[in-house]
């Protein structure tokens, strides 16, 4: 998935690895090559600059230049910086205990993978012992309700839908009633998406947020769209407020830009990644593991 980036960064490390001593020029060359690799991977320019400056500052310290294995020290610095840019520690969902109903609002543009990710989330929570309910509140995309029902059936999780509904808040209220009667502990709300951000969508989502008082507001964004995934996250955060991001299509050649820029630009953690079309293709996002994968 990060093949090209990994290759370019390992090329950059050649300027410093295997040497008993390295110079500031070696460090500059390695950092310049890493900078080019990150830009090519569609990482946000501001993020690249911060990454480069932080790496140079630390790498030019005495500890690296005088170390017995300076190349290794340099690689460790790059690794640690990358973990920090990816968000440091794993950020899990923050939900209430099973005696109270929790709600997760799944937000995102049409085609981002919102409906699929809602089902993936439901399957994951079910495996953790929770009792999730999928709620079909995407009333704009014609096939969304049916698609959610098919997925729910596949993973054997209940789905709440209202035929011919036009008001997602009304659907949500019906779902909450149903959930109370059926001992559901987690609501996963698949919301309306559009091709681009517009006011009616944001207003509808704000109303849904108000009535559902969600524990998690997750933006589902397509990693293939690179920096625009980050811009979309920023816009949703400003208008609705997010608690985290799910980056989908991580299995395709994403180049890595969105994952590396997201936390720094939006301040919101990446919580999960979608790694395929099936309900099982969903992984928690671990910054250290991803940094390890990028650095090869
Ligand atoms: P929505 O409009 O946001 O609800 O998007 P969908 O859930 O319908 O997803 C759009 C398309 O992306 C579908 O064909 C999904 O199968 C596909 N998709 C969703 N998540 C992933 C993923 O993580 N990897 C891949 N390869 N495809 C995905």
UniProtKB/TrEMBL annotation:
Main enzyme class: hydrolase
SRP54-type proteins GTP-binding domain sequence ranges: 269-282
GO terms, biological process: SRP-dependent cotranslational protein targeting to membrane
GO CC list: signal recognition particle
Positions that bind GTP: 108-115, 248-251
Coiled coil: none
Location in the cell: Cytoplasm
Main subcellular location: cytoplasm
Record key words, sorted: Cytoplasm, GTP-binding, Hydrolase, Nucleotide-binding, Ribonucleoprotein, RNA-binding, Signal recognition particle
One Gene Ontology term of the molecular function aspect: GTPase activity
Enzyme nomenclature, EC number: 3.6.5.4
Catalytic activity entry: GTP + H2O = GDP + phosphate + H(+)
Domains: entry comment: Composed of three domains: the N-terminal N domain, which is responsible for interactions with the ribosome, the central G domain, which binds GTP, and the C-terminal M domain, which binds the RNA and the signal sequence of the RNC.
Family: Belongs to the GTP-binding SRP family. SRP54 subfamily.
The protein's assembly and partners: Part of the signal recognition particle protein translocation system, which is composed of SRP and FtsY.
Task of the protein: Involved in targeting and insertion of nascent membrane proteins into the cytoplasmic membrane. Binds to the hydrophobic signal sequence of the ribosome-nascent chain (RNC) as it emerges from the ribosomes. The SRP-RNC complex is then targeted to the cytoplasmic membrane where it interacts with the SRP receptor FtsY.
Protein name, UniProt field: Signal recognition particle protein
Lineage: Bacteria, Pseudomonadati, Spirochaetota, Spirochaetia, Spirochaetales
């Amino acid at each position: 998935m990060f093949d090209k980036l990994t290759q370019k960064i390992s090329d950059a490390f050649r300027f410093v690895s295997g040497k008993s001593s390295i110079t500031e020029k070696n460090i500059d060359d390695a950092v310049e090559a890493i900078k080019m690799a990150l830009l090519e991977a569609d990482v946000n320019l501001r993020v690249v600059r911060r990454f480069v400056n932080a790496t140079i500052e630390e790498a030019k310290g005495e500890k690296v230049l005088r170390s017995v294995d300076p190349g290794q020290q340099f690689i460790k610095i790059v690794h640690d910086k990358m973990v920090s840019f990816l968000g440091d520690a794993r950020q899990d969902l923050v939900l209430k205990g099973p005696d109270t109903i929790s709600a997760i609002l799944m937000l995102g543009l049409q085609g981002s993978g919102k409906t699929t990710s809602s089902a993936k989330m439901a399957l994951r929570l079910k495996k953790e012992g929770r009792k999730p309910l999928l709620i079909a509140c995407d009333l704009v995309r014609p096939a969304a309700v049916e698609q959610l029902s098919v997925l729910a059936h596949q993973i054997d999780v209940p789905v709440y839908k209202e035929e011919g509904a036009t008001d997602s808040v009304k659907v949500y209220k019906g779902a909450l009633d149903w959930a109370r009667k059926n001992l559901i502990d987690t609501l996963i709300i698949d919301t309306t998406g559009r091709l681009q951000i517009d006011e009616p969508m944001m207003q509808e989502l704000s109303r849904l947020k108000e009535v559902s008082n969600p524990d998690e507001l997750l933006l589902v964004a397509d990693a293939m769209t690179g920096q625009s995934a980050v811009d979309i996250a920023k816009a949703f955060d400003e208008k609705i407020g997010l608690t985290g991001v799910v980056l989908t299509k991580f299995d395709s050649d994403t180049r890595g830009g969105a994952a590396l820029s997201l936390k720094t630009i939006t301040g919101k953690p990446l919580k999960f990644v979608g790694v395929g079309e099936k309900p099982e293709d969903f992984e928690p996002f671990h910054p250290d593991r991803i940094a390890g994968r990028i650095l090869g």
